[in-house]
Amino acid sequence: MAFEKGLQKIYAALCLIVPLFIWPKGGNSDHFYLPKLVLLVLFAFVLLLYLIYHREEIKKFKVMDGITLASLAFLLMLTLSLFFAMDLKESLLGRVYRYEGYLTIVLYLFLFWGSRFIRNHQLVLRMLLVGIVIQAIYGIAQTSGFDPILRDDVRLGWQSAFGTLGNPNFYGSFMVIALPLSIWYMFKHQFHIGAVIYALVFYALLASMTRGAWLGASVGLFVCLGLARKSTSYLSKISLIFVISFVLLVQFNSSHQNQVVTQALSIPKEAVEVLVQAETAPQAGSYRIFIWTHVVALIKERPMTGYGFDYLPKLFFEYYQKDMQSVMGRLMTIDKAHNEYLNIAVSAGIPSLIAYLTLVFVVLKNSVSKEKNLLLAVIIAYLVQAFFNISVVSVAFLFWILLGRLVPYASKSFIEAD
What are the tens digits of pLDDT across the range 41-60? Predict the structure, then answer.
């Protein structure tokens, strides 16, 4: 129908343009995050006007279902937490260079609700794949020392890939979403083109040098292969995937001073240090264990309400300066918990975390019960990497859009026919 085709075009343009959009001015200016947020707001405004214009079409869908109720419960918990925020303005708008406060999360939810009207996501995913290819090529070029775009002062000497996403961690999160989508294209559409896209994405993922992203992508890869096991020529396709992966892994590792193997072997080594509570355990995961243990302590102080969005840096400077000096050797800005689940709890309370997990569970349950959708692998991979990374406006909106795509609204006429 015309209504859905128009929505497809809006979301396709959004998924292609926003991740690539930057405003390079040099110096200390924000090239990445605020420009993307401004563009997201503009797209959301266009989407809102479009939905209002087609409000009669919306009545044909069963909008108020269990998933919508779960998302509204999450929104309610976030809203209630605002009354207890330590800094209301920052909790609403988010911190400078992050801009992921309450209003941004509401924006994510709006995009989630809107994406559920789309039942055919071919155009959206194809445009997203175009952006993925551009992002992969650009990131690989960065690791080779070629970057034609003006950098800010912070990133002048960076060697890892960060694309137009602002940070290797966020670039890795983006590639975690990209990897299952490239496999989807291999299995569902043009095999050889999909294989080329997969190779670019896999190499870009390695170039991010982000262990959490590697773990998430590995899980997404195996979930993807499990969901696609009844596809035609399955063995030849997965054989090619593993050959491509092995060849690129060996090539990248040998050309980057054995960094991949070193990073990969550090994962079980640091896990053992944590389990046996070694003296170096707080340094594990690039100090994530140190951050997590202190965030858990903060959550225990305000378990029901949290402290407000993006207030964590102030808490660490107020309570943990000595600990940072002792473990890290210097004071650092701990902008988030480096674990999305802990970050929700410390920002908006454990009830908000429970509401979020409930929403994700309901979506996954409904998705699995309906059909084996390869988008499921994207969501699971992202949820795994979220255990080690932070939500950021450069990437998180894609997760929410694809989460909505897993569970489109049912048509009322279809329900009545049943």
Answer: 999 999 999 999 999 999 99
